[in-house]
């Protein structure tokens, strides 16, 4: 293995160790296919705290428990085959308090086992998601909780017995330390359960430090007992309709989440490989901890789009796609599919805030990674919507179908790069990575739409006293004149939204003389409109303007079209020239000054050199 190719995180992967794990022949289940343990990886967390993970190879297993299994609960069936078709890395140990504290700066483990090497406890599923989020900001690969299927597959490690060490049937399933049955030794050699059953003041009452007992055949410790481990899935009362490829099972937002493995204070019966539990995602409990799954690549990378993680999000997105092909904005589609939300007017069919274009780009990447036709079909459906929504003059409204009541959603929209995003989708079809997504008939329609869009962009450039400047966030669909957005977003020259338009035009290969002039005029405006030597500082309920030669260059978000002065407004829509006249709700609840022009001016000399 070439570690530099697999782990592109210099200095953060401390070691890659190849290990050979010996399987106990008696513990191997014939139904498991291609199950193997591979190399281990040690990552460096903040404060040089180490995190060890073990590679789990692809294979298949029987998930749940047969009806004949002693101690079985009804939510462990139907017994069904699951095929894991990919490698993943799982924490060798449960996440420790030291590891949690290195990332989160706090230790939620308050009692029943406190110490650096003890498993973190008292954490909710939501807490774990925040922890995972912080880990992913470290830029050392992709972390998440395991799916329930991944967890059980890793726990069993090729076995189908009640525990990975055997069925252990010689005595009862409470606190008896029965012999394992397959692997040598007794239950307590592998599983921390009924911990300190006599009294709370017993020094053994609670968890134990991780890695003290014997591991399973994959080299994973404490899969039975110690702390219950959170999984990604929602808790379902049985496995009817459960996925069979290892992916997470989430049908709706909220609901209890799954815990697996049992805990230190539980009987042996509740620490079996198949045992599962549901608990509120927002509540942490004494026995609740976690174990991590890790992948040596980043989210949204090419490898990630080949995973079920991406497919789940793609399926969620498709569930939100409307009949006419568009998507609503600001929906958390990564978390769940459509849940019957109601949208007023035409808010479900928008290109604002990246809606529709973001989902289309996602579908294209999914199709190229998986070859699955539903993703291509969804992309084409979105494309047909964009073509239908375009005005005859080439512009796109923020929302379509039109409301025809004067609402700003009907205006040609540059706000939040809405129109630029659409143009980029069109360009990706004409001469980019999505050229294979459409047939010739649609490609010709895209070409016409793209050319009209270009013409509209050029014609919308606001001319003041004979001098072309920049763009407004919205333009009239008939006259192309600047128009208002929300009540406090007045018709203006936009120092913020125009930057995206200029950068898009700069990205055009071999621009025409017409496009070059548009860019030159817009850059000249940014040069003449910049604000230097002033910084804005909050003082109580107002803002003070302080002279500062080292202050970063700023641009107002809105400039008056006629005077070129920075303008502001409260909800009443009354124009103001002094930001300090705003009510504090608007004063601090909106970005009135931006640094968007920095990017334009930084790119300008590169563009000049490129077009030569």
Overview of this protein structure:
With 612 residues, this protein is of the alpha+beta class. It has two domains: 3-295, paralog of FGE (formylglycine-generating enzyme) (Alpha-Beta Complex); 366-611, Glycosyltransferase. It is 26% helix and 15% strand. The protein has helices spanning 3-6, 97-104, 125-136, 148-156, 308-320, 357-370, 373-389, 418-431, 440-460, 497-506, 513-529, 584-587, 596-611; strands spanning 13-17, 37-45, 49-56, 59-63, 80-84, 88-91, 142-144, 228-234, 257-260, 276-279, 288-289, 293-295, 412-413, 463-464, 467-468, 474-475, 482-483, 493-494, 534-539, 542-547, 555-556, 558-559, 568-569, 575-576, 593-594. The strands form nine sheets. Strands 1-2-3-6-12-7 form a six-stranded antiparallel sheet. Strands 10-9-8-11 form a four-stranded mixed sheet, covered by helices on one side. Strands 13-16-17 form a three-stranded antiparallel sheet, with no helix packed on it. A hairpin with a 2-residue loop joins β19 (534-539) and β20 (542-547). It is elongated and about 95 Å long. The chain starts with a helix and ends with a helix.
């Amino acid at each position: 293995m070439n570690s530099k190719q697999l782990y592109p995180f210099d200095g953060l992967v401390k070691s890659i160790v190849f290990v050979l794990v010996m399987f106990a022949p008696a513990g191997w289940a014939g139904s498991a296919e291609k199950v193997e343990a591979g190399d281990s990886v040690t990552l460096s967390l903040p404060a040089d705290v180490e995190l060890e993970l073990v590679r789990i190879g692809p294979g298949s297993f029987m998930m749940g428990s047969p009806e004949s299994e002693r101690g079985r609960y009804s939510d462990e069936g139907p017994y069904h085959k699951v095929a894991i078709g990919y490698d993943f890395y799982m924490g060798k140990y449960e996440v420790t308090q030291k590891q949690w504290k290195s990332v989160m700066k706090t230790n939620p483990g308050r009692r029943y086992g406190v110490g650096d090497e003890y498993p973190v406890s008292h954490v909710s599923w939501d807490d774990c998601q925040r922890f995972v989020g912080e880990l992913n900001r470290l830029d050392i690969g992709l972390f998440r909780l395991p799916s329930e299927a991944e967890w059980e597959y890793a726990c069993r490690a090729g076995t189908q017995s009640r525990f990975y060490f055997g069925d252990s049937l010689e005595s009862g399933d409470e606190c008896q330390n029965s012999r394992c049955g397959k692997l040598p030794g007794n239950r307590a050699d592998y599983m921390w359960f009924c911990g300190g059953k006599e009294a709370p003041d017993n020094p053994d009452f609670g968890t134990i430090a991780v890695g003290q007992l014997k591991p399973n055949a994959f080299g994973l410790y404490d899969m039975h007992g110690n702390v219950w481990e959170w999984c990604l899935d929602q808790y379902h009362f049985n496995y009817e309709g459960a996925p069979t490829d290892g992916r997470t099972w989430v049908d709706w937002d909220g609901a209890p989440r799954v815990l697996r493995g049992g805990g230190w204070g539980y009987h042996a019966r509740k620490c079996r490989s198949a045992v599962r539990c549901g608990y509120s995602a927002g509540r942490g409990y004494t026995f609740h901890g976690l174990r991590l799954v890790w992948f040596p690549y980043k989210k949204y990378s090419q490898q990630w789009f080949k995973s079920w993680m991406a497919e789940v999000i793609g399926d969620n997105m498709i569930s939100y796609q409307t009949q006419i092909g568009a998507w609503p904005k600001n929906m958390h589609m990564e978390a769940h599919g459509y849940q019957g939300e109601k949208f007023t007017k035409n808010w479900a069919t928008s290109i604002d805030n990246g809606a529709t274009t973001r989902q289309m780009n996602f579908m294209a990447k999914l199709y190229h990674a998986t070859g699955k036709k539903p993703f291509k079909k969804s992309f084409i459906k979105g494309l047909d919507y964009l073509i239908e929504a375009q005005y005859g003059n080439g512009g796109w409204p923020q929302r379509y179908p039109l409301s025809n009541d004067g609402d700003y959603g009907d205006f040609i929209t540059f706000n939040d790069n809405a129109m630029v995003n659409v143009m980029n989708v069109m360009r990706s079809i004409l001469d980019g990575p999505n050229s294979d997504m459409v047939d010739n008939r649609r490609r010709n329609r895209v070409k016409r739409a793209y050319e009209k869009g270009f013409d509209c962009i050029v014609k919308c450039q606001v001319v003041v006293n004979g001098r072309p400047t920049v763009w407004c966030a919205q333009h009239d669909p008939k006259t192309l004149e600047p128009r208002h957005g929300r009540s406090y977003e007045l018709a203006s020259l936009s120092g913020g939204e125009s930057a995206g338009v200029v950068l898009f035009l700069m990205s055009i290969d071999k621009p025409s003389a017409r496009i070059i002039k548009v860019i030159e005029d817009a850059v000249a405006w940014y040069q003449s409109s910049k604000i230097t030597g002033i910084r804005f500082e909050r003082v109580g309920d107002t803002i003070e303007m302080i002279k500062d030669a080292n202050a970063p260059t700023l641009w107002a978000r809105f400039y008056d079209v006629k005077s070129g002065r920075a303008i502001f407004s409260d909800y009443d829509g009354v124009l103001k020239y002094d930001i300090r006249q705003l009510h504090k709700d608007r004063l601090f609840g909106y970005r009135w000054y931006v640094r968007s022009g920095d990017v334009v001016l930084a790119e300008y000399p590169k563009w000049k050199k490129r077009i030569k």
